[in-house]
């Protein structure tokens, strides 16, 4: 959590937090559908499909962190994996889009599984 002095020097704007969260959720929803397509084409079933989704969603969050968040955190000398300046918290950053993208994943997973196995 930033100190009061840090907030006075560099305030956190709520509109920016909402925009950042919306951008991450949109990315995770889009990739969830793409992961569903690939899981259906690969013929994954049951727990292996859900594990596939979980792993690749976390990889997507990690890539987003490396490309967009980490360079600015390094420049501002923040501790590693600190997302509090750009998101409401680390849990929201790493797992926020999992439930939002799950429906799209299942939809495209079952569609492409049915198309490939038919």
UniProtKB/TrEMBL annotation:
<keyword id="KW-0256">Endoplasmic reticulum</keyword>
<dbReference type="GO" id="GO:0000045">
    <property type="term" value="P:autophagosome assembly"/>
</dbReference>
<dbReference type="InterPro" id="IPR029008">
    <property type="entry name" value="EMC6-like"/>
</dbReference>
<protein>
    <recommendedName>
        <fullName>ER membrane protein complex subunit 6</fullName>
    </recommendedName>
</protein>
<feature type="transmembrane region" description="Helical">
    <location>
        <begin position="24"/>
        <end position="44"/>
    </location>
</feature>
<feature type="transmembrane region" description="Helical">
    <location>
        <begin position="50"/>
        <end position="70"/>
    </location>
</feature>
<feature type="transmembrane region" description="Helical">
    <location>
        <begin position="91"/>
        <end position="116"/>
    </location>
</feature>
<keyword id="KW-0812">Transmembrane</keyword>
<comment type="similarity">
    <text>Belongs to the EMC6 family.</text>
</comment>
<dbReference type="InterPro" id="IPR008504">
    <property type="entry name" value="Emc6"/>
</dbReference>
<dbReference type="GO" id="GO:0034975">
    <property type="term" value="P:protein folding in endoplasmic reticulum"/>
</dbReference>
<keyword id="KW-1133">Transmembrane helix</keyword>
<dbReference type="Pfam" id="PF07019">
    <property type="entry name" value="EMC6"/>
</dbReference>
<keyword id="KW-0472">Membrane</keyword>
<dbReference type="GO" id="GO:0072546">
    <property type="term" value="C:EMC complex"/>
</dbReference>
